[in-house]
Design a protein that fits this description.
alpha/beta, Rossmann fold, 178 residues, 6 helices, 6 strands, HAD superfamily hydrolase
Length: 178
Amino acid sequence: MLEEFKPTWMVKSIYSVLPEQLKAQGIRCVFSDLDNTLIAWNNPNGTPELRQWMKSLSDAGIPLIVISNNNKRRVAKAVEPLGLPFVSRSLKPLSFGITRARKKLGLNKYEVVMVGDQLMTDMVAAHQAGVRSILVKPLIQTDKWTTQMNRFLEKRVWKLLRKEYSDLHWQEDLNDRK
């Protein structure tokens, strides 16, 4: 049960996930949570670092697709300035959104990675879908009210994870295995 929460990788920032490292892992597509992963939940414009990272993925031929629990209107408004495709109402921690997007693209499970900032939704959904996962630190330390309960529960899960898996640590990038 506890392993459902364990990410494949823990990288401090999404901007440190390099296309060449993804390709070396056989990853052909990145699925990403939206709020506090790609953009701060209270600032939908994104950052120059995000745009540079998106460009590096695009240049490498790696699509980036947003997988969000938010409704279609909210996600469409948020990603419109970024020009990203998305799946809304993905029902994370269930696997529906990830599986739907993966099958639509004709990709195998090992060719996809799910990036997110929450154990309770993003990491569990990745496990449920059978894809690898990257946990990143939230862009900002505040959350929408709907996420605050998850963060409370997440603290308890973290204690158990650290006790069970002593090798869990934040990495600088995918190759930083201490």
